[in-house]
Write a structure and sequence with these properties.
This protein is mainly beta. About 10% of the residues lie in helices and about 40% in strands. Strands 1, 16, 18, 19, 22, 24 and 25 form a 7-stranded mixed β-sheet that branches. The longest helix has 15 residues, at about 40-50.
Length: about 550
């Protein structure tokens, strides 16, 4: 269902997109949109035409099976297994999965429900022929339970986790983190969601009358490539490992070309970018225009108040919590969740960078790949940065809904910065096919830096101009984004004060740093754990991490 296209570097500079959504009287506004140009309207119309052909019901969390909803208290013994599911219609795709038996039912990659303060006690049993470990992405746990990959579970082995959920309510996620195996294990299916609730989260659900799987819908964005038998294909060359593997088909909740039905009410979407390397420029569109929606939360939970926008980026590892008031939409036509066109800024040094990184990488483009066709030729290949439909939302008749967007969401504390000079972390490459932090490659035996327990530090993450975008993720702690400097045009046009993007407004654990850009973040290294702690900081473009862009750091008592 796709046609093959030559490998070319995409440069979609979108001056015609304008600034962010017109807002009127709303709880919070980042910027204003005067309208859309004819060019943008035409592109959005093309996206909507694509979505009109979507015919697969979105896979939603259920009572068992894949993404079955499970209380975290019942997530006691989990096996890493090989299984198979139907992803493409009529074909069984082999996958890796976290399998749990509970109440006489089998769950694969269960979506876990917990409350802040709950204790997690989990035994991981490795039934595959590769080492693995679970990393609890975004949770502030001690390094023994973090699953940072410094200790892994061998084939046939087991590991016990025990920790308290101390973090703010949010949608976190869990995935493998055994170095040397992270990209392929995540790509083949090892990932799912962990919802943590607290009083503020419960109040929002009650105020808006939200129900998980109905009016509150998790969306896991992934891209995959399949062979003619429906098996996942993951075989990166050296150049593709350097650039990051990008699949040619776009999936939402492991559903290709999905649609859902929704009433004319406020609907909440909890969105995870679960791709190895692909970023998206998300928008909800209808009738050739972008619809305004509200950013309610980020990686680490709710914002202080809703922020009205009409588009935003999401990079690998990041989460967005958005509220869409479908009463604002035309009831006679569907709404489409889309990725708008943007310049993915791959190999900004052009051939100079490619030649420095090795002959195989000259002219490298972060998109597929010039391989042989593997399936039907009706759906174009999904190049990163192209305008594409992700999901269609069909509006259905519904009962009268009179809830209003809340003006306050949470008691989000203000970011606290350090008066000391920032710690500089420079992102680059060594000209040999490896990505680097401060000129070094990842060495699991060496802690490249250390911080003091309780310290409040400012880090300045500086990406080289001849580079690629890097979504940088820190284990063990969340942080706040303070400022963006030197941002490219496509970032500046979506930014507000201090160059901050919408998703920079809350608590985060992953920040996307574009080529030539410097991002200042504030981290509080206070924690309750006994003894020194050992974590990693890395790019969440998973092939970039495996190609060296990771460092080990310690928190000293």
């Amino acid at each position: 269902m796709f046609q093959w296209m030559p490998t070319v570097t995409r440069r979609h500079f979108l001056g015609s997109l304008g600034a962010l959504g017109a807002a009127g009287s709303v709880p919070g506004v980042l910027a204003a949109t005067p309208g859309v140009s004819d060019t943008t309207a035409a592109a959005i119309t093309g996206i909507e035409k694509e979505a009109a052909g979507f015919a697969n019901p979105l896979r939603l969390p259920g009572g068992s099976g894949l993404y079955g909803v499970l209380p975290a208290s019942e997530f006691r013994e989990v096996h890493v297994v090989r299984s198979a599911i139907e992803v493409l219609p009529g074909r069984r795709t082999p996958i890796l999965a976290y399998a749990v038996e509970s109440g006489g039912k089998t769950f694969l990659n269960p979506a876990l429900l917990a409350r802040r303060g709950d204790e997690m006690r989990v035994r991981l049993i490795n039934d595959i022929d590769q080492p693995t470990v679970i990393h609890w992405h975004g949770l502030s746990v001690d390094s023994r339970n973090d699953g940072n990959g410094l200790n892994v579970v061998p084939p046939g082995g087991r590991m016990d986790y025990a920790f308290a959920l101390r973090d703010r309510a949010s949608m976190y996620w869990y995935h493998p983190h055994a170095h040397g195996y992270i990209p392929q294990q995540a790509y083949h299916g090892l990932a799912s969601l962990l919802f943590v609730e607290d009083d503020e989260e419960a109040a929002l659900r009650k105020e808006l009358d939200l129900a998980l799987g109905d009016s509150e819908i998790p969306l896991v964005l992934q891209d995959r490539e399949f062979d003619a038998q429906g098996r996942l294909r993951y075989a990166p060359t050296a150049a593709q490992s350097f650039g990051g593997w990008v699949g040619d088909r776009l999936l939402v909740n492991l559903t290709e070309r999905p649609f859902i039905q929704a009433g004319r009410r406020i609907v909440r979407f909890r969105i995870l970018n679960g791709c190895n390397a692909r970023s998206y420029r998300l928008a909800f569109v209808q009738g050739g225009r972008r619809l305004g929606f509200f950013l309610a939360g980020t990686d680490g939970g709710l914002l202080a108040r809703p922020l009205r926008i009409d588009q935003t980026f999401i990079s690998p590892g990041q989460r967005l919590d958005v509220l869409v008031d479908l009463r604002e939409a035309d009831p006679g036509r569907p709404v489409t969740l889309a990725s708008l066109a943007f310049d993915p800024m791959h190999a900004e040094g052009g051939h100079d960078m490619g030649q420095a990184a090795g002959p195989a990488m000259a002219g490298m483009d972060h998109s597929q790949h010039g391989a042989a066709p593997t399936a039907e030729p009706s759906t174009p290949m999904a190049m990163e940065g192209d305008a594409r439909a992700l999901m269609r939302i069909d509006l259905k008749p519904s009962a009268t809904y009179e809830r209003r967007m809340p003006t306050v969401l949470s008691s989000l504390p203000a970011a606290i910065t350090s008066p000391n000079p920032p710690r500089r972390l420079r992102l680059g490459h060594n000209g040999q096919g490896n990505w680097t932090i401060n000129g070094g490659l990842f060495d699991p035996k060496v802690a490249a830096l250390s911080v003091q327990r309780g310290a409040r530090e400012t880090w300045l993450i500086e990406n080289a101009e001849r580079s690629m975008p890097h979504p940088m993720h820190i284990h063990g702690f969340s942080f706040r984004v303070i400022e963006r400097l030197g941002s490219p045009a496509l970032v500046r046009e979506l930014a507000g004060a201090r160059g901050l993007l919408p998703q920079d407004q809350g608590v985060v654990d992953t920040v996307h740093v574009w080529p030539g850009e410097s991002v200042r973040i504030a981290i509080d290294f206070t924690h309750p754990h006994a003894g020194d702690q050992d974590y990693v900081f890395h790019c969440h473009s998973l092939e970039h991490a495996e190609a060296g862009m990771m460092l080990r750091y310690t928190v000293k008592i």
